[in-house]
Structures are given as structure tokens and as C-alpha cells.
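Aim 2 progress update. The chain analyzed this quarter is reproduced below.
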Amino acid sequence: MALEQLKPEIWSAQLLRRLNDVLVFRNVCTTEFDQEISKFGDVIKINEVGTIDVNDYTATSTGALTIQSLRDAQKLLTIDRAKYTAFWIDQEDKAQAKPDVLNAAREQAAWSLGNEVDEYVASLYGQAGITVGGTITTGVDITSTNILKYFSLIAQKHDEANTPNVGRWVIVPPWMAHKLILSKIALDTANSGVLGQGKLGNYYGFDIYVSNNVYHAATAARGAVLSGYKGSIALATQVLLTQGMNTVTIGFKYLVKSLLVYGAKVIRPNNLGVLWSTYVAEAS
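Predicted C-alpha cells:
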């Protein structure tokens, strides 16, 4: 494909598709608000119904019903993050029509932008309303012999919090994924193989994803393993600008730039859990 054919709308679609491919944390968020973004600083209103009261009733009741005013539990999602990439290629490459160079650069740009979004969503651990175990200063030691117990505890905590069964997930760092494999949890499930987009398998009703962006404390051995369901976190992303242009300001170059805006919010903290887990070497 010649560079002249890469129109902005085509660039945007291609970049967004590649960006979505690398967002592990996007897989577990509700993303229905993407199309509501028009610019940086937008505030998206997430409407939901508050608690409905239950009142006593008897067959001999003669009084009027107690009728409540419907309460609005609206939450606000602010698009307060913006990241861009900008790179150029030589006009010589353009003249020789080297699409492979451009495609590789675009894929790398998408990965870099996606990685920024992933890291940001992972950093929302502080808003989790369920503490499964450990703290940011003292994690629980995880080995292949006790990891089953902690996955059971994750499930128990979410059951107690009435987290919906549909769409439950856990995101683990690679070292914990290997603990799962050593304990045969991942291998003994029907969908045990790596299923794409970082998904390792399913256990205790949770889809298990693997990501290097799981937040780790300063020691790099203590990670904030998040768990929840599809409605725990809201994420909205939008590519506002992707274009290529000839420029003479930096010589005979072809400039390519992209702008991504996004925001994320924990909208149901009581259905988001965090397990502070510490890596422990297996006994030899």
C-alpha cells in the first residue's frame, strides 16, 4: 500500500484495531462508552439505579404504600489521559514504497499506546473494595502448593460480595501463571492452553489472563493481582488523530503522528478484589 493511500480514517481504524489486540486489561473492562468521546477532558456520565427499598406488607395492611423516589447512582468517567506517538521515515523509503517499514512502525506505536493504557488500568488497584490477602508492604507468599487455596479465597470473597458469576476474571503476572501450571490448575482445565490475548484458561469460574503490566511494588516480587467481573472497571479509549504528511521542516521526511485519549474508573469497587502476592522460588 502506497503511503499516499493511507488516509487518516484508515490509519485510525488500523491503529485502533492493533491497539485493542494488545490490551489485556481492556478485555476485562466494560468499554461501551468509547464512542461517547469527542475530545480530551470529556466527562462521561455512567447512569445506574440505586438501591430499591423493601417494605413489610400484611394482608390486614390498610395504610398507604411507602413509595420511594428512584435514586440515581450516577458515576462520572473523565477522559483525563492523553498519549501520542510521532515518528518519521525518509522520503527515500517512501519513494521506494516500503510498506513493511511503515506497518512495523504502526504496530509498534499501537503496542506502545496500548501498554500505556494497560499500565494505567492496572494502577487502579487502590480502588479495590475487596482485600483478598496481603498488603502493599507485606504480600502473601505464593507457591505451586498453596496457589489453589488463594484462588479458592478469591472466589469466596467475590461470592460474599455478590459479584456476578458471568464475566469473572483474574489477571496474574507471568510468574504466577507458571505457579498455576506447576500446580496443574491451568493444565487440568478443558480450555487450558493459551487462548489468545493473554488468556491462560478458566478456573473457579474466573477467566485467567496473564500480563506483564500487573502492578508490582518496589521489590518487583510483590504484585497486585486484580480480580473482578466485566462491570468492575469502565474504560473508554478513542484515537482522535492519526495522520501522515510530507514535511520539509525536518528535511525530506514523511511524518506520522497519532493521538490517543482515554480514561478509566472503578465503577463497582465492591466487586473488585486485590491479592498482594509475593513470588517465592519453588523447592528444589
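Helices lie at 8-21, 91-95, 99-122, 147-160, 174-182. The longest strand covers residues 233-247. These observations will guide the mutagenesis experiments scheduled for the next reporting period.
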